[in-house]
Fold these 2 entries.
Entry 1:
Amino acid sequence: MSIKIEGLEKFVALGKENADALAKSGAATVKAFEEITKAQQAVVAKNVEQADAAVKAILAVKSPAELADLQGKLARESIEAAIADSRKLVELATAAFTTAFEPLNARFAAFQALTKTAA
């Protein structure tokens, strides 16, 4: 004997679809954090190499004027690299988290469509 409750199947299906969307979003979020972490590690490694090269260049200067020129050049390069690296990390984070929220946004849209048809 089976009792059928009107709308229960839809409610159960909605819950399953929501759970699937949460799982997909969670997996995409983990992947996003991994990608961002790798990108940050690459920036740190690059900065260490640049710092090493800068120290070697500073130690090789022959005059105060050469040191001043080198410091200005290194400061400019450092600021430009920091801006470029920050921009790259922000773009990566934005793209990654946009992807992570796509399953949830789809569920919100489906829920809105469902409530409009029910009204």
Entry 2:
Amino acid sequence: MHSVSIEDFIKTIYLINQDEQVRVSGKLLAERLQVSSAAVTDMARKLDEKGLIIYQKYKALELTESGRLMALKLVRRHRLWELFLHQVLEMDLQQVHKEAEQLEHQTSDALITAMDRFLEHPQFDPHGDPIPGADGQLPQREQVVKLSKLPVGHYRIARLTYSHSDLAAFYQRHQLALDMTIQLIQRFELDASVEIKANKHTIVVNKNMADHIYCEDIDNGIVSEKSD
């Protein structure tokens, strides 16, 4: 177990809400941050007093508007650093995430503004994640859908999320990358896994992994979700 900063606490709540669209319980947050449930409760009470989150015993943690803006600022720093390290310094995607985790806490607003200008105001990082603007607005990509929700067909990978180290290892092992064209061959209703063809190889992807791979249609960017 280790201590966690206010910034990481706030950012993690935001990312769980944004990427996984689930309610953030104290238990889930403790697991993600690798701290005790008691440590999460203690921090939550402090941040509730500061007006950054809404904390109520036995209820999901929620960010206030102030907390959301703090999280967006951190996410903006992190994703701009990832893009800079990958695009300019040619570091691999696993490296840039680890380095950006450190740099996001030590970067001035002036440096982030200069980096954004140097990179020509990008909207997405190397993983396809949206980079919040200086005003906190998130760029939107039309009709990007989780692989787990798609019907059989051909798609382009538009976003890969890295919320767990196992995901990075999975992408690397199967050489899955942004803008790659894949074929969804078959869906298995028993366990909601999917069979895809990528890099001339056939891969079975379980639902948990497929929930972190976002795709768009290769012809016009419009896809329809499969009903559960």
